[in-house]
TrEMBL record:
Lineage: Bacteria, Pseudomonadati, Pseudomonadota, Gammaproteobacteria, Pseudomonadales
GO molecular function terms noted in the UniProt entry: triacylglycerol lipase activity
Keywords assigned by UniProt, alphabetized: Hydrolase, Signal
Name by which UniProt lists this protein: Putative hydrolase
Gene Ontology BP annotations: glycerolipid catabolic process
Domain (AB hydrolase-1): residue spans on this chain: 51-301
The species this protein was found in: Metapseudomonas resinovorans NBRC 106553
Signal peptide: 1-20
Length: 331
C-alpha cells in the first residue's frame, strides 16, 4: 500500500513539476517597451498572477548578468521575476540628447567636492523602474537592487513606498562621505571602457570581473573571457556606462532618504567587497529603521558560483515573509 501511495504521489507530482519548469523558463523572449525618454528591454519570468519581484542591475550590467539559476530559483519559489536592462546599457536605450562626456574632468571635480554634471540622475533611473511596472500592469512589487541598482532601488522606495512590498539591497551604499573608498586601481579598471576592438574590450572586462571577485574563489580565466564576450556581443555601449558613472558621482548622500524609508528592508553585503567595502552595507542598514543586515563571509562584488546559495538563503526568507501581500499586486 505504501508503494502505491508513493507511486501516486510521484505520478501526480510530475505534471506540477513540469509546469513549474515551464513557468520559470529563463529563456523567454526579451521584450521592449517605450517609456518616453527611454526604451527598456526586459524579461518577465513566471506567472502573471504571482507576486512580482523586480531586479535592478548595477553599473554597466545587463539583465543577463543576473545568474539564470538564481532567477529560476526565485521564480520556482513563487515569484514573477522581472529583470531588465537599465537605460544606456544592453538592449535598452536613452533617447535624450547625448552630450559630450569628459569623465576624467568630472571625476576630478568629484574628488574636490565640487558639483558633477550628469545628463540624468539615479532618481530618473528609479522612475524608469516605476514606469516599467506601470507598463506591465503591476501595482506593487518586491524590489531587489544590486550595487548601483541598490542605489536606484533606494530612490524607488522613497518615490513610491506604497508600491514596494519589500526591499532587498545587495552590495550597495548610502553614498555618504567618509565611507571606505575602493582602491584607485579598481576605479581605473571600472572607468576603462574605451577599447579599439572587440578583443581588447573583452580582455578589459575580464580583468574587471577578476578584480571584483572574492579572494576566496579562484576564477577560471576562460570562463571570465566567455562571460565578457557574451556581454560584448549582446551590447557594447561605453558612452552609456560613462553616463551611468556620472549619475552616481553627481548623487548627494542618501542618508536623509534612508532615514525616512519605512518599507521592509533586507541589506546584504559581503565581507570581502573590494569596490564598496563592508561598512557601506552596515551604514545603509543603520539608517533604515527596522531593516535587517546579513553579512556574507567572503562575498565580494560579483555573483560568483560559490555565493549563489548563501545569497538565496538570505533573500528567500525575507521575500517569503512579505509574499502574501503580493497576490494583490496586479492592477
Amino acid at each position: 500500500m505504501r508503494v502505491l501511495i508513493l507511486l501516486a504521489v510521484l505520478i501526480c507530482g510530475l505534471p506540477s513539476f513540469a509546469f513549474a519548469n515551464a513557468r520559470c523558463d529563463v529563456a523567454v523572449p526579451t521584450e521592449t517597451v517605450d517609456l518616453g525618454p527611454v526604451r527598456l528591454a526586459y524579461q518577465s519570468i513566471g506567472g502573471e498572477r504571482d507576486p512580482a519581484l523586480l531586479l535592478i542591475m548595477g553599473l554597466g550590467g545587463q539583465l543577463i548578468h543576473w545568474p539564470d539559476e538564481v532567477v529560476q530559483s526565485l521564480c520556482q519559489s513563487g515569484f514573477r521575476v522581472i529583470r531588465f536592462d537599465n537605460r544606456d546599457v544592453g538592449l535598452s536605450a536613452w533617447t535624450g540628447a547625448e552630450p559630450s562626456v569628459n569623465l576624467p574632468f568630472e571625476v576630478v571635480r568629484y574628488r574636490l567636492g565640487l558639483p558633477v554634471s550628469a545628463p540624468y540622475g539615479l532618481r530618473d533611473m528609479a522612475m524608469d523602474s516605476l514606469h516599467l511596472l506601470d507598463a506591465l500592469g503591476i501595482q506593487r512589487a518586491h524590489v531587489l537592487g544590486a550595487s548601483m541598482g541598490g542605489m536606484i532601488a533606494q530612490h524607488l522606495a522613497d518615490l513610491a513606498p506604497e508600491r514596494v512590498l519589500s526591499l532587498t539591497l545587495v552590495m550597495t551604499s548610502s553614498g555618504a562621505q567618509g565611507l571606505p573608498a575602493p582602491s584607485p586601481a579598481l576605479l581605473e579598471l571600472l572607468a576603462r571602457r574605451e577599447a579599439p576592438n572587440r578583443d581588447v574590450a573583452i580582455t578589459q572586462q575580464a580583468d574587471l570581473l577578476a578584480a571584483l571577485g572574492s579572494p576566496q574563489v579562484s576564477d577560471d580565466r576562460g570562463q571570465l573571457l566567455e562571460q565578457a564576450a557574451r556581454s560584448y556581443d549582446r551590447s557594447f555601449n561605453p558612452e552609456g556606462v560613462q553616463r551611468q558613472i556620472l549619475a552616481i558621482l553627481a548623487e548627494p548622500s542618501r542618508v536623509d532618504l534612508l532615514n525616512r524609508l519605512q518599507v521592509p528592508t533586507l541589506v546584504i553585503h559581503g565581507t570581502a567587497d573590494p569596490l564598496l567595502p563592508v561598512m557601506h552595507g552596515v551604514h545603509v542598514a543603520a539608517h533604515i529603521k527596522g531593516s535587517e543586515l546579513k553579512l556574507i563571509p567572503g562575498l565580494a562584488h560579483r555573483f560568483q558560483e560559490a555565493f549563489k546559495e548563501p545569497l538565496l538563503s538570505a533573500v528567500l526568507p525575507h521575500l517569503r515573509a512579505h509574499r502574501a501581500e503580493g497576490h494583490v499586486a496586479q492592477l
